[in-house]
Amino acid sequence: MELIDTHTHIYEPEFDEDRRQTMERAAEAGVGRLLFPAIDSGSHERMLAVCRDYPGRCLPMMGLHPTSVNDNPQWRRELDTVERMLAAPPVERFYGVGEIGLDLYWSADWEREQTEALHAQIELALKYGLPVAIHTRNAWPQMLEVLACYRGRGLRGVMHAFCDSEEHYRRVKRLGGFKFGLGGVTTYKKGGGAELVPRMELEDMVLETDSPYLPPVPFRGRRNESAYIPYICEHIARLKGVAAEAVAEATTRNAVELFGLEA
Ligand SMILES: [Zn+2]
Fold first, then answer.
1. For the chain, N or C: smaller number of CB within 10 Å?
2. Which of 184, 162, 179, 178 is nearest to 229 (CA)?
3. How many separate domains does the chain show?
4. Ligand 1 center to residue 99 CA distance, Å?
5. How far is the CA of 88 from the centre of ligand 1 (A)?
6. 219-238 pLDDT, tens digit each
7. Under a CB-based contact definition with an 8 Å cutoff, are residues 106 and 148 in contact?
8. Is residue 43 helix, strand or coil?
9. Rounded to the nearest whole angstrom, what is the distance from the C-alpha of residue 7 to the centroid of ligand 1?
10. How far is the CA of 9 from the centre of ligand 1 (A)?
């Protein structure tokens, strides 16, 4: 049973020393395909180079991360780059628009700009029929307001690094078309996973590491990597009281459907 890491940044320099081994460890752990969310033009080439090294295994998305909008006088040019890339992909294809969203944790000073960038990129996702990978930090009321604008327009995607309240789960679910990316945070004692995950349906879940960040238990404090996806899968299975195979099967099917992958 193949597992899919729907959100990893192994194209980042943290993996320059041992990327090939990291990919091998992922394969040995049963993690076949990896989806790469883009950050900004500072890392596009790195990301695309790794995708060219692993065709069919490393699958790129394209988008501008909300924290790359902050304090960046060039952010509108960055959006133009995203648009140009989506219009004429320099690789076989992009699998989604991401990662995009709202992040008011580091600073709330660029909420207006982040919101504009988010709307612009959601429109691109709709134009190209792609799912979105959405990052939300300290901005849930604002995010729900943005998403509500697209009700009935066929927007779909993944709420990345989701470990929020059941209420937010239900509200996003009602908008339709969204999956929830569960990662290392669901394994943390104070992460909220023990309350949330049992109330979620398997049909709504996809797995992700967000590596090199947010490693699951028992790897906290270390670099995260895709080979740890089985730990997340097994933890979710325990919380749900189902077999790990059931979680693996459902999350892989959900990822295949959402990102339009080959089954
Ligand atoms: Zn990310």
1. C
2. 184
3. 1
4. 7
5. 23
6. 999 999 999 999 999 999 99
7. no
8. coil
9. 6
10. 7
Q: How far is the CA of 39 from the centre of ligand 1 (A)?
A: 8
DSSP collapsed to 3 states, 157-213? EEECCCCCCHHHHHHHHHHCCEEEEECHHHHCCCCCHHHHHHHCCHHHEEECCCCCC
pLDDT in tens, 148-157: 999 999 999 9
CA of 100 to the centre of ligand 1 (A): 9
Residue 114 sits in a domain whose CATH number is 3.20.20.140
Q: Is the pLDDT of residue 162 over 90?
A: yes
pTM for the whole structure: 0.97
Compute the distance from residue 237 Cα to the ligand 1 centre, in Å. 23
Distance (angstroms) between ligand 1 centre and the Cα of 37 equals 6
Amino acid identity of residue 233, one-letter, is C
Mean pLDDT confidence for 230-259: 98
Q: What is the DSSP letter of 30?
A: T
Helices 244-259 and 229-240, axial angle in degrees (round to 10):
120
What is the spatial distance between Cα 234 and Cα 66, in angstroms, rounded to a whole number? 31
Residue keyed to tokens 């995010």? 143
Which distant-in-sequence residues (6+ apart) come within 8 Å of 205 by Cβ? 179, 180, 182, 236, 247, 250, 251, 254
The whole domain housing 50 covers 3-259
Cα–Cα dist 12/233, whole Å? 24
